[in-house]
Amino acid sequence: MERLTERKHDGTGISKKPVVDNNIQKHGITNYGRQIITKLADYEDAEEQGLLLKLSCKVGDRVYTCFKNYYNEIRTVEAKRIELGNFSLGNVRYLVEPIGRRGSLFRYYERDFGKTVFLTREAVEQALNERMEYDGIS
After folding, report:
1. Which has the closest alpha carbon to 66: 137, 121, 133, 110?
2. Which of 23, 102, 104, 110 could disulfide-link to 92, CB 3.0 to 4.6 Å?
3. What contacts 24+ positions apart, CB below 8 Å, involve 71-74?
4. Residues 12-53: pLDDT tens digits?
5. SS3 category, 47
């Protein structure tokens, strides 16, 4: 699929070509502008129909896990495989492997992100601190 936009350094999106005709007489949208709007409409249609899926991470990403029964135990893991299916705990399953421990795969689900799986080390540390405060452990 052809990419019609680019991302600026500040994170905003811009089109690769003009989308408005600068001719004072016309003041109309260009064919390129119509292509961008049509493509956006396609994505919005797919999202409304439940066909668009946004994953929490991609294969190869490092994420961080913590465990409910152990405080200060943080593991850095790498997403090895992402599976879609009708699993008992959700429709998206992430198979991760601890860094430095080849062959040991653990399963996490989309609903685990923000609870026991985190995208940054800072986020997992904050969650552990909050859990310890809640449990009265200092």
Report:
1. 121
2. 110
3. 71/128, 71/131, 71/132, 71/137, 72/128, 74/121, 74/124, 74/125, 74/128
4. 887 888 777 776 555 677 888 888 888 888 988 988 898 888
5. helix
Eight-state DSSP code of residue 112: G
> In whole angstroms, what is the distance from residue 21 CA to residue 58 CA?
39
pTM of full prediction above 0.70: no
Q: Which residues does 57 contact at the CB level (< 8 Å), separation at least 6?
A: 63, 79, 94, 113, 119
Condensed to tens digits (0 to 9), the pLDDT of residues 57-100 reads 999 999 999 865 555 678 899 999 999 888 888 889 999 998 87
Query: Whole-angstrom Cα distance, residue 84 to residue 95?
Result: 11
CA distance 118 to 62: 9
Please name the amino acid found at residue 49. Answer: Q
